[in-house]
Amino acid sequence: MRTLVIGAGQVGPHVATQLAERGDHVVVGTRSGSGPEHPLITRTHLDATDAAALERAFADVDVVHLCVHASAYRPDAWERELPPLEHAVLTAAERQGVHVVYPESVYAFDTSGTLGADLRVAPRSHLGRIRADLLARRAASSARTTSVVASDFYGPGASLAHGGDRMVGPATTGRTVRPLGRTDLPHAWTYLPDLAAAMVAAADAPDGPEVVLAPVVHASQRELALAGRDEVRVRAVPVWALRAVGVLSADVRAMAAMTYLFSEPLLVDEAATILPATPLDVAAATVVDLTRRDVVAGR
Fold this sequence. Notes:
Number of helices: 11
Largest sheet: 7 strands, parallel
Number of strands: 10
Strand order of the largest sheet: 3-2-1-4-5-6-9
Shape: globular
């Protein structure tokens, strides 16, 4: 199978590396030409909004993993950047007969109950409505698409995630972890290598569904902060404080609009996910080890 991975941020490098480690030749396309290093990975310059460039790139592959996101965590950036990207990718995929696999979030779905095989689109925020529109575009396309719905990320490379560097860095270096909302509620988390494995599995499935659930583990924010560590100070940022700052900051305002995910339980039916998850203690040990190495190396 010939595979193109677009993007080298949080998700793309994991997908490309897993494919290469099983022996696949993979092309990673980014505007800068960056990407993970591996003998079976070819890095190339690719602008995913350039229709002609996409046509050329898609002509040589069977599967595309689209791991590109907007430049900022704000509705205006998402509305400006993501629909044109989606249109360009789907148009090229339709013309070239390519299967497109996407990492997707829970934002578009009804999270008031347990997420399972019968996912219901019911966004609860502006960002969620944009995700719902993107899902509708994929469903209306004649191209084959698979959206792999992940919960909040944690794990190596989760630099922008609630369970990523903003939690792991302080927890590993003795500083106070400051999660959002309530710290005692059960919450579904997706380990980034597990998301990549789920995307690879979705690409391999000949007749899989259009939307699948990525693996998850359930832990409160406090439990995630403590995982693999002897002692951690945890002090939550209350939702009201985030909303107050959001009056002056569009970035914080967008984050505050998503705090319902941390003010209520976020539950996923683990039996409905495409693959089993890496156990939290195993994943946490890997994260702690990598973080401590980075601290020692001064990174």
